[in-house]
Amino acid sequence: MKASSFLYLGNFWLKTVLFKKKDPILGTIILTDRCNLKCKHCSVNNITAIMHPYVQIRKEMQTLYDMGVRILFFCGGETFLWRDGDMTVRDLVIEAKRMGFMIVNLVTNGTQPIDLPEADLILLSLDGDKERHNAIRGNTFDTIMENVKNATADNICFYMAINQINKGAVRDVVEIAKKTNHVKAVSFNFHTPYPDTKDLQLTKAEKQSIADLIAQMMDEGAPIFNLKSGLPYLVNNTFPTPCHQCLVMENGKISVCGRCIDVPGLCEQCGYFFVAEYTLFFQGKLKIVFEALRTYLKYI
Ligand SMILES: C[S@@+](CC[C@H](N)C(=O)[O-])C[C@H]1O[C@@H](n2cnc3c(N)ncnc32)[C@H](O)[C@@H]1O
Ligand code: SF4
Ligand code: SF4
Q1: Cβ(197) – ligand 1 distance below 6 Å
Q2: What is the pLDDT of residues 42-100, one digit of tens each?
Q3: Centroid of ligand 2 to alpha carbon of 78 (angstroms)
Q4: Closest ligand, as measured to the CA of 127
Q5: Which domains does the chain have, with CATH numbers?
Q6: Residue with CA closest to ligand 2 atom 3
Q7: What are phi and psi of 108, to 5 degrees?
Q8: What is the pTM of this model?
């Protein structure tokens, strides 16, 4: 991260903590909800299957920028399917950087070739060893690993949503990350139980034993892009929700925190690690703040 970006974000943090402000800093744009997969745990694919055009996405980027967002994520559906004429998601990332977003990341299922050196981080969903990943995501593991091998930059972070199917494969994903070129780290989420995927939810005891394992692997020096001090809050769902510093833009509609904000009762069961980590960070919890600084400077 550039020193100027670090100072800007530090100043934003200080103002937020001191004056308990709710201004946004992180924004996510949903490029399309179209997807080539139909993962068992996912409730947001192919609802409209609309591919939002470049002019719309560009306008949404400007709106978020004008609202103060400086950390931008592209998400979907599948981001690498996005096209407008000859333009691909790479053009969007380059444009976002040109506009002044300080960190530009995207989330992908990794089934398409990965040529995106301009992104700060590519969060690539890997949901287990081959058997358990494929049980959730169809027969995609080998294709994904081939795409990771052929990626053009070392900016990939595996992204695992832990649920009833893959709860035993947490260490496997870390071990795969350690021995795979182009992969910097692994970032986790617990399954968030949307009404149609409640059966995949983890119990509190299961979350506790997974959190213990993640903490143990962190102590062993494993490349994990999460905050150990956030884990107890995630196990007990005691972090504040929603995250006011985070906005999501989908087809012109802005939601605070996530698209899921409208699902009744979901925030109390939220499993997204970023929500816990960001809300606690912006509450000024010192342990979280110091750990966040160390972790973010290491991976971004
Ligand atoms: C909706 S996908 C979109 C990007 C891309 N298609 C992918 O799979 O990475 C974004 C991330 O959300 C995760 N996800 C989907 N449903 C979830 C849920 N109910 N709880 C936690 N994570 C979930 C996916 O595993 C993926 O890592
Ligand atoms: S690849 Fe992503 S968007 Fe598509 S179904 Fe799976 S989790 Fe959902
Ligand atoms: S806190 Fe609520 S809105 Fe935010 S990601 Fe979690 S469930 Fe969605």
Answers
A1: yes
A2: 999 999 999 999 999 999 999 999 999 999 999 999 999 999 999 999 999 999 999 99
A3: 7
A4: 1
A5: 24-299 (3.20.20.70)
A6: 77
A7: -145, 155
A8: 0.97
